[in-house]
Design brief:
This protein has two domains: 4-204 and 285-302, TIM Barrel; 206-284, no CATH class. By secondary structure, the protein is an alpha/beta fold. The strands form two sheets. Strands 1-9-8-6-5-4-3-2 form an eight-stranded parallel sheet. It has a three-stranded antiparallel sheet with strand order 7-11-10, covered by helices on one side. It has helices at residues 4-9, 26-34, 48-61, 77-86, 100-108, 120-129, 152-162, 176-184, 194-197, 206-212, 236-246, 251-258, 262-268, 294-313; strands at 15-17, 39-42, 66-71, 91-95, 112-117, 133-137, 143-144, 167-170, 189-192, 220-223, 230-233.
């Protein structure tokens, strides 16, 4: 599975873990990297000192490449970026903002930069900004998503036509067969969120993991489009959001309903009714499965990928 993505990051397999809030700490990032992929620490839910602690622990837990995912709307972005450079992190994934502001600064300091997009228009802007690769994230993904609601199967070929940059597919990638399908559409690597969010090494609460491993089709929905679109598990909070949106709530009203710390409350602390529970549509494919280790997930992905490739090669 050698591609431009494996060459760019110096990894064995073109499989990257999502840098998810309240999920992607040093344990998950180092485990994915040790298994041959690229682990990411999710800076979006970390204070600067906490991020530094996770980077230091990740460096101690793996000698393989790993990176940090940084939402560009982060309120202490300058502090975060300086910590990343000071600690010698060589890979940064950026999202939720324009890549122009930080890409040049990071690259001048020897950092490989990847930006997450939800459309071919933004992919072209990434190429203009000088990023090293793009993640094209489809509507199926968990967490924050694109307002266009373009599915991964439609987004990947559109982005592939729009840019020559190395391309990583995200959204609904939860099997070896999905990896092969993404490659057939033009992707050179995949970013996997949901599968890794529900592993033993994930920082998410056990209650959140067990709930998500029992979700069925239709148990998540894309909401909060007037703020920052997020795919949420249906619960009491999600129903309240739906009612508010049906009644025409504006962005300020939705922001007040969301409040502060809602994702931490749900994902990290395990409040399954009033928490904001972000997970991808692919969770329904895992219904009834146990909580696995990262090594088990990677082995499942690679085994299924090779079997699918062999079937199609006959």
């Amino acid at each position: 599975m050698k591609t431009r993505i494996t060459e760019l990051f110096g990894i064995e397999y073109p499989i990257i873990a999502g840098g998810m809030v309240w999920v992607s700490g040093w344990r998950l990032a180092s485990a994915v990297s040790n298994a041959g992929g690229l682990g990411l620490i999710g800076a979006g839910s970390m204070h600067p000192d906490t991020l530094r602690e996770h980077i230091v622990k990740c460096k101690a837990a793996t000698n393989k490449p790993f990176g940090v995912n940084v939402p560009l709307m982060y309120p202490e972005i300058e502090t975060i970026m300086n910590i990343i450079v000071e600690e010698g992190v060589k890979v940064v994934f950026t999202s939720a903002g324009s890549p122009k502001k930080w890409t040049g600064w990071l690259k001048e300091r020897g950092v490989t930069v990847v930006h997450v997009v939800s459309s071919s228009v933004f992919a072209r802007k990434c190429e203009e900004a000088g990023v090293d690769a793009v993640v094209a994230e489809g509507f199926e993904a968990g967490g924050h998503n694109g307002r266009e609601e373009t599915t991964t199967m439609c987004l990947i070929p559109a982005v592939r036509r729009a840019t020559t940059l190395p391309l990583i597919a995200a959204g609904g990638i939860a099997s070896g067969e999905a990896i092969l399908a993404a490659q057939a559409l033009g992707a050179e690597g995949v970013q996997v969120g949901t599968l890794f969010a529900l592993t033993q090494e994930s920082s998410a609460s056990d209650a959140f993991k067990q709930l998500c491993l029992n979700l069925k089709e239709g148990d998540t929905r894309l909401q909060l489009k007037k703020l920052a679109p997020a795919r949420l598990v249906r619960n009491e909070f999600s129903d309240a959001v739906q009612q508010a949106e049906d009644e025409g709530a504006n962005a300020d009203q939705l922001r007040e309903l969301l409040g502060r710390g809602r994702a931490k409350r749900g994902i990290f602390e395990g409040d399954l009714e009033q928490g904001e529970l972000e997970i991808g549509q692919a969770a329904s494919q895992l219904c009834g499965q146990p909580v696995k280790t990262v090594d088990e997930v990677m082995n499942d992905l690679l085994t299924a990928y090779r079997a699918a490739l062999a079937r199609l090669s006959l």
